[in-house]
Amino acid sequence: MSNIKVIAFDCDGVMFNSEKANTAYYDRILNHVGLSAMTPEQFAYVHMHTVSEALAYLFPDEDMLRTAYTYSRSTGYFDFIKLMEIEPYLKTLLENVRPILKTAVATNRTNTMGQVLKAHGLDEQFDLVVCAMDVPQPKPHPDMLVKVLEHFGALSHEMLFVGDSALDAQAAQAANIPFVAYGNPSLHAAHHITTLKALEDIIGFH
Hints:
Blueprint: E1 6-9, E2 16-17, H1 19-33, H2 40-46, H3 51-58, H4 62-75, H5 78-81, E3 85-86, H6 90-97, E4 102-106, H7 113-119, E5 128-130, H8 143-152, E6 159-163, H9 166-175, E7 179-182, E8 191-193, H10 198-202
Parallel strand pairs: 1-4, 1-6, 4-5, 6-7, 7-8
Antiparallel strand pairs: 2-3
Helix pairs in contact: 1-4
């Protein structure tokens, strides 16, 4: 067994394939304001950032941005959660490691994570959930990961952070936490994996 005591996961792109959900959500807002659906470049941005950052990026016009904000608050995200596809082996991994390790979520989602976890039967599988609204600054700043370390009284080398984006990698580097890149070989990381099951080998779980 390694010296790892805590594993933290990003949500979108790691715990879930949420491309369909996020595309449908932001495209609905764009359509409401009278704009076209997202381009691949726009999707790449909104998929990593907080909802406020995403809306500010999609709607540089102040009047449109106000309309988009109002509509996003009234619409909510709940209807799109069913489009999120849980990553294979996530539940099994959590069941296997939780008796030994602490588990956390560190996501730039703002206020939807609780609903997401509950809808997919994961609300009892994490010891701590940290969202963008829980810290002064979201990823790529290290605030979320530092909060996780402090919560569990862990040292940086005793934690792994699993992410799939440049923001995740930058946050891990800023917090001096070993980064596990999931499905993105272009990222600088201590480990690269293509399946969540591979985490068991990294932490020495057998």
